[in-house]
Specification:
By secondary structure, the protein is α/β, with parallel strands linked by helices. The protein is built from 14 helices and eight strands. A hairpin with a 2-residue loop joins strand 2 and strand 3. The relative contact order is 0.12.
Length: 316
Amino acid sequence: MQFLNFEKHIADLEGKVKELTGLDLVGEKSENNDNEISKLKEKIGGLIKKTYEKLSPWQITLVARHPERPHFIDYLDILVSDFQILSGDRSFSEDRAVIAGIGTFHSRSVMIIGQEKGFDTDSRLKHNFGMVKPEGFRKIARLLKLADKFGLPIITFVDTAGAYPGIGAEERGQAEAIAQCIKTSLEVKVPFISVIIGEGGSGGALALATSDKVLMLQNSIYSVISPEGCASILWRDNDKAEEAAESLGLTANFLKNKGVIDTIIAEPTGGAHRDHHSTIRNVYDAILQELNELINISPDDLLLKRQEKFLRYGRI
């Protein structure tokens, strides 16, 4: 496992456990070793719990970006069956930063849309690090309309540092594509649930999170800009990213208190990267609870409540 910089004390103890376990494997097994390993594992568990109970916003940002954290395809493989991928924006090309299609969630047909960052160099390049281009946002808008036409609930998964900032994206109308995506989100009359599973950065996240219910994993982040981007603008110094994270209000607890998100989904002790199965199960339970409530609301009421929810953010 890759340890973060604030987990050095945990990494040191894990190293000792591996060392003692290695002695067992080469035939130097002893009762003292077993006792020492048990004590170390108990101490590690306590340290992880204590450390993760008091994470700073910057530390939560690092956890949200952990390379071993579950990605959208992990959720897709377990939560959705009979998945049929739908591709292209019918205008320019396919954007692999967004994986989308129709599948079955808890015996119900749904439209599933998610951002995928990739796990290694090849997959990250393939998925453009989860940074969506205009054609990706236009694909999302197209599929939102398709879901609305056939009465399919929409579930989106957000995990991006932000929309792709390249020149080509700007030439193809990045801002307009995001705006149209948000506009479409505010027009569909089907249940719409968004889950922030890692990074929720800027318009790249909002385009997928203009929904009836916004759920957020405990150690995810959701903000108008990344801490590094904020630091480079305010102080012209990326080294002030930690200070920027403190000021941005990007944590789940802060956003829940402000009414920006609706539900915080608990993560296993030590973060989602330490226990994929429990994390995905918690996400499943949270989505199912919200979906069961939303399907009992009439389409017109769903639409009015969603529009009022986002209009309320701009009122003083």
